[in-house]
Design goal:
The protein is an alpha/beta fold and 532 residues long. The protein contains 9 helices and 22 strands. The protein has 4 domains: 117 residues, no CATH class; 124 residues, 2-Layer Sandwich (Alpha-Beta Plaits), CATH 3.30.70; 41 residues; 106 residues, no CATH class. The strands form 7 sheets. A 5-stranded mixed β-sheet has the order 10-1-11-14-15. Strands 8-2-5-21 form a 4-stranded mixed β-sheet, covered by helices on one side. Strands 18-19-17-20 form a 4-stranded antiparallel β-sheet, with helices on one face. The protein is elongated. Bound molecules: 2-acetamido-2-deoxy-beta-D-glucopyranose (2 copies).
Length: 532
């Protein structure tokens, strides 16, 4: 029902867009390893102290796993991590043994456009349409998606009120308040680490899709948001290949081409303008096939059309044609486009008929502003490793402040001492999960995250909780809510708050509160003792 409603809203209305987060902290993602490939049977997988929580989502075999004391590997449902001494002859594996290091050691920026792609649906393909830099990151009418089956490490930065339409993390739709409480969980801190000053940017989930026929403003084309976007983006600007480049509102790099800014009157429709221009001036003209057109509403009564190509020649020519077409319509009474005035600026040659406000020159923020921290996560590599650490720690330093806390930004730096690593002996494998069809619980649940893990459990027991669900299923509660560990990877059901939820899923998970913990980690006891 809700899906239909949303679908209807998306049809025929401007700019209904999903923005999907692209990077993840998955073990199997080649981009997360310094070798450019995931570790295989000949490799020693090395995870550093500063690392994000590593999410193991596929069955994997390595030679060895080197963990820091404060590190975390989260197992997907029914996933097996195996260890072998046998040579791995598979094609993707180098024949000799090497160390392969997990290199997601700092959170990715929300305001980095490379981290987002625009899609038409939650799981749809990334679109390749041209956008202003400021519109490549989520706009206030966008539906933000952190896709299921992944784990993330995100720098929300600080001091900004990020506004979005909807916000979904691994299948769960959040409201402003539920996201706020998610951020205060250890899981939330792991994904969206706290910046140095302890305050993340706020995220307001407005539930206000774009339904204005005159278009919707992205909201990112000014002020601090544009500033942050451009600090990152400008490093990637290539030199413009025209004499007098332009800098349209909301864009960070110089462009060659033209900008037309139109003030519109009553009766204006965004789609009518865009489609009319395309039909009347662009379609069927081979000379314009390489010209990109970016149309945005930049204020309550202004539309900006940016036209660009490599040297700006065709694009500026087209810009002038557009201005002429619109001006002719204005002179004739504006019945076609309902535009009141148009001014243009082009990059080379003449034709400049008016000033175009240039994008604010954003001030540099120091690189060190990369906010975030390393969450000293739980070492969750499995029963034996856990025991190994447990023993190790006990011997090591009973007073050692336990790693399960949030470090300051300084943690991005390599510590000047090497923390001890735990080596997992070769030739042994373990898994989480169990027989099929016993319950909807996911593989395991780490009580170290809980507020009071010992509350109602036999602390030393290790239970393996059966699991039958695949990762692709979105709503997968794993926890007893009294424990406060809400792992969005295996989402709890977004009861009524979700716009996307399949109602059948909600039903299935209504007995959430009574779910037993599936895996009790004995470290939990150690961790909690100092506090009690
Ligand atoms: C990790 O290393 C690979 C290969 O060198 C590289 O492509 C990737 O961008 C790196 N990732 C990060 C997060 O630095
Ligand atoms: C991993 O292997 C186990 C058995 O070895 C199998 O039951 C499970 O489905 C596999 N999981 C994945 C994600 O392939």
């Amino acid at each position: 029902m809700g899906q239909w409603l949303l679908l209807l809203l998306c049809i025929g209305l401007v700019d209904c867009a999903y923005k999907r987060w692209l990077s993840n902290t998955n073990f199997g993602n080649p981009a997360n390893w310094n070798a450019g490939r995931a570790p295989c049977g000949n490799d020693v997988a090395v995870i550093h102290d500063e690392s994000a929580a590593v999410f193991l989502q596929v069955n994997t075999t390595v030679k060895q796993l080197l963990m820091p004391m404060n590190g975390e590997v989260v197992f997907g449902s029914d996933v097996v991590l195996g260890f072998t001494e046998q040579p791995d002859h598979s094609a993707s594996c180098t024949p000799y043994s090497s160390n392969v290091e997990f290199n997601v050691t700092y959170p990715r920026d929300w305001f980095d456009s490379n981290n987002w792609c625009e899609t038409d649906s939650e799981t749809g393909d990334c679109k390749t349409i041209a956008r202003l830099d400021s519109e490549k990151v989520p706009c206030m009418n966008d539906d933000v998606v952190y896709p299921s089956g992944n784990s993330f490490y995100v720098n929300l930065e600080t001091g900004i009120d990020i506004k979005v339409n909807t916000f979904k993390i691994t299948g769960k739709a959040y409201t402003t308040t539920s996201f706020q409480s998610f951020l205060s969980t250890d899981q939330g801190k792991g994904m969206f680490p706290l910046p140095n000053n302890g305050q993340r940017s706020s995220v307001t989930i407005q539930r206000r899709p774009c339904n204005d026929p005159t278009g919707c403003m992205c909201g990112n084309n000014k002020g601090e948001v544009l500033n942050r976007v451009c600090v990152i983006q400008r490093k990637r600007c290539t030199k413009a290949q025209c004499r007098t480049p332009l800098k349209p509102v909301g864009h960070c790099c110089d462009l060659c081409g033209g900008v037309a800014v139109m003030k519109f009157g009553s009766g204006f429709r965004f789609d009518t303008l865009v489609n009319g221009i395309r039909r009347n001036l662009i379609d069927g003209k081979p000379e314009y096939k390489d010209v990109q057109v970016i149309t945005s509403k930049i204020s309550e009564d202004e539309i900006q059309m940016v036209l660009l190509d490599t040297d700006g020649v065709r694009a500026s020519q087209l810009t002038r044609e557009i201005a002429k077409e619109v001006q002719n319509d204005i002179n004739a009474g504006g019945f076609k486009y309902s535009v009141l005035s148009v001014r243009v600026d082009v990059s080379s040659g003449g034709g400049s008929t008016g000033p175009i406000s240039s994008a604010q020159t954003a001030e540099s923020i120091p690189n060190g502003e990369i906010a975030g921290i390393v969450v000293g996560g739980a070492v969750v590599v499995g029963l034996l490793i856990v025991v190994a650490i447990f023993v190790y720690r006990r011997k090591q330093s009973p007073t050692d402040e336990l790693g399960f806390k949030v470090f300051d930004k300084i943690s991005f730096k390599k510590p000047n001492f090497r923390k001890p690593r735990v080596e997992v002996p070769p030739s042994f494998g373990f898994r989480f999960g169990g027989p099929e069809n016993v319950g909807p619980s996911q593989g395991f649940d780490n009580p170290m995250y809980g507020n009071n893990p010992l509350e109602n459990e036999k602390p030393m027991d290790m239970e393996i909780m059966p699991s039958s669900l695949g990762l692709e299923q979105e709503e997968q509660p794993t926890f007893d809510s009294s424990r406060g560990f809400d792992n969005p990877l295996y989402d709890s059901p977004p009861l009524n708050e979700s716009m996307f939820t399949d109602p059948s899923v909600v039903e299935k998970t209504s007995d959430l509160g009574s779910r037993p913990t599936s895996f009790v980690n004995p470290m939990a006891m150690v961790e909690d003792n100092p506090q009690t």
